[in-house]
C-alpha cells in the first residue's frame, strides 16, 4: 500500500502564493508518475499538473504559467508551487501517484486551498 500525505494548503488572498507538498511512503523515482488534481464544490476532480518519470511537467490550461510542479526523487516528495492565485483556484487539492508497473493509482487525503479577499 502506498500512502500519500499532502500539506501546505490554506487561505490566501488573490494574487498570492502557496506551496503544496506531498510525501510518498515508497520510492517514486522509477515507478510512479506523480500528479496534482483538484476538486471544487459541485465540480468533478480535474488534473492540475503532472510530473512523469524522467519528463517535464504537464499543466492544465487554467494554471499554465502560474503553477509549477516539481519532484524530489531522493526524498520521495512532489510539490506544487502556486503563484498568482485566483478565486477560481479554490478547491481541495489531491496528490496522486500512478504506478507504471501495476497501473494502480493512489491518492492523498486532500488539502484545502481557498483564495479569497
Commentary on this structure:
This protein has 117 residues and is mostly beta strands. The chain contains no helices and eleven strands. Strands 2, 4, 5, 6, 9, 10 and 11 form a seven-stranded mixed beta sheet that branches. A four-stranded antiparallel beta sheet has the order 1-3-8-7, with no helix packed on it. Strand 4 and strand 5 form a beta hairpin. The chain starts with a strand and ends with a strand.
Beta-strand share of residues: over 45%
| SSE arrangement, N to C | EEEEEEEEEEE
Structural class: mainly beta
Tally of DSSP helical segments: 0
Show unreliable segments: none
Helix content: under 10%
**What is the residue-averaged pLDDT?**
95
Could you tell me the radius of gyration in angstroms? 13 Å
Basic shape: globular
Please write out the topology.
Blueprint: E1 4-7, E2 10-12, E3 18-24, E4 32-39, E5 46-51, E6 58-59, E7 67-72, E8 77-82, E9 91-99, E10 105-107, E11 111-115
Parallel strand pairs: 2-11
Antiparallel strand pairs: 1-3, 3-8, 4-5, 4-9, 5-6, 7-8, 9-10, 9-11
